[in-house]
Specification:
Rossmann fold, five-stranded parallel sheet, 5 strands, alpha/beta
Length: about 150
């Protein structure tokens, strides 16, 4: 069995965090899930700065990234991930309530792997997260680390 990588959930809405974690737990995902609550904290986590400077060297299997967040928005987090030699191969899935076409277009121009608009209904939200978790954390084969 291959080593299970971490999943990084970048989300500022407490209810969406709870729903996402419950959905991933419901499919018995064994990956460790780290949660950060704004874009600045996400960048600190990914680049091992500030409170995360001593974090283990394992890169996440996938980043589930909200767009509309305080301090640094999701598009800037995505841009910095994809511009980094060390991080660019991490799959990034935008998980957002934004239906703005400009957000969608910009996300793909920056190199996002998938863009999912959060369903408003609980059952649809849980189903979407389960499918994302199954694919990106279990089925997807990431490139080997250098």
């Amino acid at each position: 069995m291959k080593d299970l990588k971490r999943i990084l959930l970048v989300e500022d809405d407490e209810r969406d965090i709870e729903l996402t974690l419950a959905a991933l737990d419901d499919i018995n995902i064994a990956n460790k899930i780290d949660v950060v609550r704004d874009g600045e904290e996400a960048l600190n986590y990914l680049f091992k700065r500030a409170q995360y400077k001593n974090r283990e060297n394992d890169t996440p299997a996938v980043v589930l990234l909200d767009l509309k967040m305080p301090k640094v928005d999701g598009l800037e987090v995505l841009r910095q991930i994809k511009e980094s030699d060390e991080l660019r191969n991490i799959p990034v899935v935008i998980l957002t309530s934004s239906k703005m076409e400009s957000d969608l277009i910009t996300s793909y121009k920056l190199g996002v792997n998938a863009y999912v608009v959060k369903p408003v209904e609980f059952e649809n939200f849980v189903k979407a997260v389960k499918e994302l978790g199954s694919f990106w954390a279990i089925l997807n084969e990431p490139p080997p680390e250098k």
